[in-house]
Amino acid sequence: MTRVVIADDQALFRDGLRAVLTAHGIDVVGEAANGEEAVALAARCCPDVVLMDLRMPVLGGVAATREIRALPSAPRVVALTTFDDDDSVFDAIRAGALGYLLKDARAAQLVEAIELAARGESFLPPAIAAKIVGELARLPAQGRSGVAEQLGLSERELVVLRKISQGAANKEIAAALGIAEGTVKNHVTSILDKLGVDGRTQAALKARALGLA
């Protein structure tokens, strides 16, 4: 059973989330009213996922996400907020959030985002994904000479990383390169480890920032 901590400063909203998640077989192991409490609960309760509001007192959701992702055996973080402006989206993703949902999302989307995050996969609604793609297009390339080598990326991993940055799924990458999908999965795992990121979205952002995409 997936274990979740809910972080939101509105008690009534937390109550509603708990009811929805419990009804879908998700174990809510803690609730936090601010980012500081969320970090403490993440360390103490060892959840699989933290549902993180971005605008909270004491410590904001972005800063809390950053602190949680720095914990040993860190849980994944899914941002759940009313804000979809560019700054909120990019700040949350850069801090380490693996998913980003608005509070008007359907229950099925929320459950899917949590389950995907627990497996280390991203969930981004189309409108949010479009923002990230747009940002990738705007980020300046910094030159790639020696960067891949410094990161320890092989030539094949670099090709896979570029495909990820283009939004290709593992099956599509496997078909394009003429290799098994399982081999692609192994490459993706290695790439995420070498880049020091948790998901494909963050890998794509970092690849673009380093001029590797």
Question: What is the total tally of β strands?
Answer: 5
Count of individual domains: 2
> In CATH terms, what is the architecture of the largest domain?
3-Layer(aba) Sandwich
Shape from CA axes?
globular
The run of helices and strands is EHEHEHEHEHHHHHHH
- What is the helix tally? 11
Strand content: 5-15%
Largest sheet: 5 strands, parallel
- As for the CATH topology of the largest domain, it is Rossmann fold
Q: Report the radius of gyration as a whole number of Å.
A: 17 Å
Question: Can you lay out the helices and strands and say which pair or pack?
Answer:
Elements: E1 3-7, H1 11-23, E2 27-32, H2 35-45, E3 49-52, H3 61-69, E4 76-81, H4 86-95, E5 99-102, H5 107-118, H6 126-138, H7 147-151, H8 155-165, H9 170-177, H10 181-195, H11 200-209
Helix pairs in contact: 2-3, 3-4, 6-11, 8-10, 8-11, 9-10, 10-11
Describe it.
The protein is α/β, with parallel strands linked by helices. The chain has eleven helices and five strands; from the N terminus they run βαβαβαβαβααααααα. It has a five-stranded parallel sheet with strand order 2-1-3-4-5, with helices on both faces. Strand 4, helix 4 and strand 5 form a beta-alpha-beta unit. Helix 8 crosses helix 10.
